[in-house]
Amino acid sequence: MSFLITGGASQVGSVIAQLLKDAHQDVIIGSRSGRVPEGFQSTKLDWLDASTFQNPFKLPGVEIKSVYLLLPYGYVDPSENIKQFIDIAVRNGVKRFVLLSGSGHEKDADFGISKVWRYLDERKLDYIALRPTWFIDNFLEFHGKDIREHDEFKSVMPNAKIPLISVADIGQVALNVFLNDKNERTDQRIIGPELVTYDQVADILTEILGRRITHKVVTPEELSDHYSSSLGWPLQYAQFVVQAEQYVNAGSEERWWGNPENINGQETVREWVERNKSNFAPGSKAGN
């Protein structure tokens, strides 16, 4: 029995794949680009190309029982295609789906993730939507190049207090969800172990990296343009992310703090930076 991880070498997907492999489970990576973690079997899977949806189920000797669903970055909504994939997966014997959502996403919203979440629910499938707060790891994915080359990172969040969660902690929750005989919930919010501001993150980076790192607050327009140019995102998607940051600055992530239904991660920002400090060294190619 195998686990299919969609999204190629994504942050959370890569961690889940490795944890499953370490637990002696068979893992298949579905990837549009062919970029997959080293040492894993892969297959072509593109949410915008329905002709690839049968590929994972044609692999010789592979019987997929569970699927991790990741919607791609960008502004195209692939939810109708992913619904089609879910139908194909069920017909091919898949029993459980794990969907990566977000702490503030709701099942009844009009986002692509919510449409997929609703479909899993309407079909009464065995599924769970994981709802993590803001990732610590985005300091590498979004800001790594700026920190390495300019000793700064930009945001529109001067006031936000955020329970930042590490991808490692999210992956551990996902592993448990995949391997449990039965999950009692259909969604689970996952938050970090502490509330921190971006100024505090800058101070932690400064102390551990041994050079002054600055958090620079910019306008939404400046940040949208910066994300679009430096990360290669479509401008409309960059604007969507910046709008989410503005919500975070207004308290959209802090509000989950102390909710007894949360799963609380273990890794602090300081521990995460210590573990990843080499990736912030000038000349490193990690992240963006």
Automatic annotation (TrEMBL):
Entries under Gene3D superfamilies matching the protein: NAD(P)-binding Rossmann-like Domain, UDP-galactose 4-epimerase, domain 1
Pfam families, per the entry: NAD_binding_10
Domain NAD(P)-binding: 7-169
Protein name in UniProt: NAD(P)-binding domain-containing protein
